[in-house]
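Appendix B: complex inputs.
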Amino acid sequence: MSETQFVTEARAPAAGEPERGEIELSAVLHALSDPVRLQIVGGLSDGVEHSCGSLDLPVTKSTCTHHFRVLREAGVIHQRHEGTSRLNSLRSGDLEARFPGLLDTVLRAAGSG
Amino acid sequence: MSETQFVTEARAPAAGEPERGEIELSAVLHALSDPVRLQIVGGLSDGVEHSCGSLDLPVTKSTCTHHFRVLREAGVIHQRHEGTSRLNSLRSGDLEARFPGLLDTVLRAAGSG
DNA sequence: GCAGATGTACGATAAACGTCGTACAATCGA
DNA sequence: TCGATTGTACGACGTTTATCGTACATCTGC
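Resulting structure:
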């Protein structure tokens, strides 16, 4: 896991991301309710930053952009710019603080289902 | 809780309900991603059967019917006919068997959020 | 500067969604 | 039987969604 994932203090989120305290449950559940986005979250669950293209998703680039935006605006992921890439990571710490156990439970459910 | 909720054997679902093994994670998350439906699930979380009207929802009757159908077709609730009422209950046992911890975690998140 | 790589922006499109109103069906009590 | 209660069916409506293609922006390496 990256060193930013288990911090317990809320940090200032990037533009377009909700703050930790403003993450809404219904938005998170909606973000996780799409199979492609569930696949993205599963791909990010190793705690390593992944670029959008490195996840080998079954949709086109522009649809990818759409799904990453939904996840970002729901507060599920963080996007960092590096070169021509956008490095994505799960906001595990923020989600764990706001909705304890939720992300892990969903990831386990996605893995076994 | 009613006596049907913690059975570990899958039972034949009513028409329109998926069987235990066919409950899909994305459908469950989508069903739970609407505030009204989250309120319904919260209202049913005492384990008691509730009629549709007894939950005092902020929408009209026909919208209620719609939300209960979404929950039923996702496998989240069971509906039983009794007189002029439809008694609703959570499929806690089936959900726990299929996606362990998911329902409890979401309900706890909904309660604190 | 130029070409390639990586995403985003924008518009289009078809499907699904949440909401409502009205009409209807089923049941119960008087 | 008649009226009240409870919920469903159906159609309408505006919004949102998931998807794509094309065009564009940004960065890297030559």
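Residues 51-53, 61-62, 64-65, 68-69, 83-86 of chain B lie near DNA strand D (CB under 10 Å from a C1').
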